[in-house]
Amino acid sequence: MIASYDASLTPGEASSYFRQQENSVNILHATTDHLHLLIPLFDAYRQFYEQKPDLAGASLFLGERLTKKDSVIFLATDNSGAPLGFVQLYPSFSSVSMKRLWILNDLFVTRPARRSCVAQALLKRSEEFARETKSKGLMLETGVNNTPAKKLYEQSGWKKDREFDRYFLTLI
């Protein structure tokens, strides 16, 4: 799921602003060395989706993902190293095309860093990574009422899937 992002800029304004701001955002391929920066971001992301704070659980979950290389996490920081946001990608595959694809499962930007092109930088790095790994593409889902995020994705070239319906079987 994707947390809310304030994307009220027009596509032209966003593109111009992004070019001006992208040098002030650093995107790091996160490792376990970055857990201390990721844990509070991940916990805030979960709280956005009305989950109770759980720093210990966040530490265990992210530590396991990174140690087992179950996911790829990109961490956005400012020039002083302060964390601004993150994106987490999970690998998947398309049997039909016989290609890898990536599920953009989590995207979060701290409230003070919103509207400063951090989300765009994380999306751009995710796209670059998918190209580097010769993937078919990226997929994501977001809340039907998350209009700011949907606007961001559409401005970034993402297309809403109109061919397939998504189903989910709840087990726990």
Give the overall pLDDT as a whole number. Answer: 89
Low-confidence stretches: 2-11, 13-22
Q: Say how many strands there are.
A: 5
Question: H/E order of the elements?
Answer: HEHHEEEHEH
Taken from the alpha-carbon principal axes, the silhouette is: globular
Assess the beta-strand content as a share of residues: 15-25%
- Biggest sheet statistics: 5 strands, mixed
In short:
By secondary structure, the chain is of the alpha+beta class. The chain has five helices and five strands.
Task: Describe, in plain words, how this protein is organized in 3D.
The protein is an alpha+beta fold and 172 residues long. The chain has a single domain, classed as 3-Layer(aba) Sandwich (Aminopeptidase), CATH 3.40.630. It is built from 5 helices and 5 strands. It has a 5-stranded mixed sheet with strand order 1-2-3-4-5, with helices on both faces. The protein is globular, with a radius of gyration of 16 Å. The chain starts with 10 loop residues before the first helix and ends in a 17-residue tail after the last helix. The relative contact order is 0.19. Mean pLDDT is 89; it is low at 2-11 and 13-22.
